[in-house]
Each structure stands twice: as structure tokens, then as C-alpha cells.
Amino acid sequence: MKNHSTNFDRSKPPKPGSEKTVAFPEWIQRSLPNGLTCLIYENHDTELVDFRMVIRSGSSCDGQKYRLAYLTSKMLMQGTHSRSATDIAEQAERLGIDLHTGISADRITIYEDVMTKYIDEGLELFADVILNPSFPEKELSFLRGLSLSQLQASKADGSSLASKAFLKAVYETHPYGNPGDGTEESLNAITTQDLHTFYQQRFSPEHAFLIVAGDVDPDAIMRKLTNAFGGWTSKPINPERFALPRLNSQQQIILTHQEGAVQSTIYAGHLCIKRNHPDFMALHVTNMILGGYFGSRLNMNIREDKGFTYSIHSRLSLKVLSGDFYITLKVRNNATLQAIEEIQNEIKRLQTTEVSKEELQAAKQYMIGSFHIQNETAEAIASRILTQHFFGLPKDYYTRYQESVQNISAGDVLRVAQEYLHPESFIYSIASNVYDIVGDMKSLGEVVCYDKEGNNMTIN
Known about the structure:
Layout: E1 28-31, E2 37-42, E3 48-55, H1 68-75, H2 85-95, E4 98-103, E5 108-115, H3 119-131, H4 137-154, H5 158-171, H6 184-189, H7 192-202, E6 208-214, H8 218-229, E7 252-257, E8 263-272, H9 280-292, H10 297-305, E9 312-318, E10 323-332, H11 336-352, H12 357-373, H13 378-390, H14 401-406, H15 410-420, E11 427-432, H16 434-442, E12 447-450, E13 456-457
Parallel strand pairs: 2-6, 7-11, 7-12
Antiparallel strand pairs: 1-2, 3-5, 3-6, 4-5, 8-10, 8-11, 9-10, 12-13
Helix pairs in contact: 1-7, 3-8, 9-15, 10-11, 11-15
């Protein structure tokens, strides 16, 4: 028997393969007379159709009733003027329809995946939940109770505690920093009238757009969309205006006490650019090198070399008006300070020395390879179209994606690392047993401590 074992160095990533160019598919844009924009991608590879209705209002429009947009979106599935929640669920199950909603700070999205043969029934159901919600009190009471239970559970979760404190510190009074899971006070204050008001003020065809991707003929589907949504009355939407925060002038260390925690959950970062910024791609590549994939510097140092964590990532969280950059990881309590010092070292190295040609190309190949893999289904293409249209990116943004990535140079990486990464202004939000780590954290600077409810704690 032949011995097929091969010895190779697992500490080094494999060399990238040859580059392939794959064209991003075309789609068309049309509009209904009421102002609803329809983006249509035709793909007959499978007998499925993906619908996505995007409403340009999200949790940043909650006002003081945090979680209002979330509950409004969830209640769309809980009853219309002609269907109960049970009716909706049973029809979706009978037809094999996946019908659900999602929410971010800037938008509510209603999703439906349906087989082509059931497209008429599926589209009628989809339009009904969007255009005719009834917001029954019984269903609101159930969802409120579920949200309250989730809120209580989040107070024992390190990631929830650290991320919530981080966003509040980054965005200050801007609603991007509001608690996404609400508060007991806000959840108990939300009424069905609040849902009706939010819906009336935020849902309008001119304030929305619809993506249709899959097994459709553009002309035929536009006729169906006209029947389904042509009667949706357009109305003016008053855009929310908020003063944007500024990058904090100095480092902040925020500790949230997590009773009995044996590890620290760290969120470290600051305010950053928005999605359609001209330097986004250069910063995207830079972030990939720093902590965006398994071969990144942070991962190879803090996970592979030091063994401080199982997982570490750096990310760009991008919103319509702004964005933030953060690094997140979990480490044992006694390694918290060392992990932070290594993060600082890696950022400093990125800002002082150009990356090698090999390291830069490896990150680019990963990005391009992932991009092509993620474009293999109509659903994935719909996600790209949503991002392009929602953030106002050029129509050929994804057609030029591979070229844009490859055009980023080592000099670009050095420049944006210096311009957009500011370790001297980092906010370190850490959920842990504060008594175990507060001494070490004081060596970094002034420390502020909170309990799980967000109240100030005094630690001697």
C-alpha cells in the first residue's frame, strides 16, 4: 500500500491559485406609477423566486420606544385584515413558502422565497402582510413577552453586554447607539397604536424598493407586481435628522460586570466611515489583512501564536449615515490586558510598515474567491442588489468588484490604516468579572464600570 501522507507547514496559508474572472449578472430597474422601485434579476436555473421588500426605516426611527421598529416588522406576520397569524403560517407551510422579516438600524426587510408554480399565491400573501397588517393586541402581548425574556437573557451574555455598551459610547446620543433589544420600560410602553403610527409614518412605496430574483420573466412579473402593489398609496415621509457624533478625542475603557465570568468579552474600536465612502474598498482590504479572515494578523498572532482566544475578528459595521470599526474576541480574564496590548501592536505595525506583496495578494484572493462563491444563487445576487441600491453604490459596483480589489496597493493599505484607524481613540468595552480585571485595565487609563443594568459601579 502506498503512503499518501504529505508533510506541510500548517502555520502558513496555502499559496493562492490562479485568478479567475467571473462576470456579475445584470438586472433591470423599473418602477410602478406609485413610485415603488422594482429591481429584477432573471435566473431560470432553479424554479424559485426570491422577493425582498425594503422599507427605508429601521430601529434608528424608534424614538424613545426602543424596539418599536422591530415589533412592527414582526407583527406584519401576525395578522392582516383577512388572515390571522395561524392562517399566514398555515398557507406558508402548505405552499413551502419561507416568509420572514429582518431589521437593521436603517431598514426593515420583508423576505419571501416561493416556488415558481406557487408565485401567484405567494405574491398575494406577500402583498397582504405588507399592505394590510392588523396588529392584533394578543399577538403584540406574546411578542412583547418574548422580547422581555430575551432582554433578561441578554444581561447574562457577555457579547450582548459589551456590544451594547460599545455602541452607546461610539454613537453617544445618536439613535445608532440605542439598545437594539429595548428596555423593560420601552417594551412595556409600546402599544398597538404605536405600531399603527409607525407603519403609517414609515411604510410608503416611495420610501421602499422591491427586489425580485429568480425564475421570472421581467414583463410578466411587472404585471403581477402592478396587480399586487399598484394600489399602495404613496405618501410623503419625513426623514429623521440627527446630529452625527464625532470621533472621541481620547481612549475610553468601559467595563460591564458579568457575575462569575471567567473570560472577558472585548469590543474595541471607534467611529468610522459610511458604506459609500470613496475609501471603503481600501479600508475593506486593510481590515481583511488585520482581522477579517483566518489568515489575518490578529488571528495568527492572538489565536494561533499566543493561544489567547478561539476566535478574533475585526469588522466594519456600515450604516447609511455613518459606521464603526471594531475588533471582537473572548479571552480568559488574566489574558485580557495582554490581548489588548497585542491588538495595539498589530495596528501600530499596520500603520508603520507596508504589507508584503504576498500578504496583500493572499487577502485579495480570499476576498475575490469568497465574492464569487457567494454569487452562486439568485438569493445571493438579491443580497448584492439590495446592498448596491440601498447604499447608493454605482450600478456597476459589483461588476467592477474584482478589479477594485486588485487595484488596492500596499501604499493604499498603509494610508488608510493611518487615516482611519485611531488606537489612541479606541473605546474598549469589556464584559467580565470586573473585580478580576479592573487592576490591569487601570494601567491603560481611566476606567468606568457598570453593572448589567447599565448603572455606574464604584470599584476601589
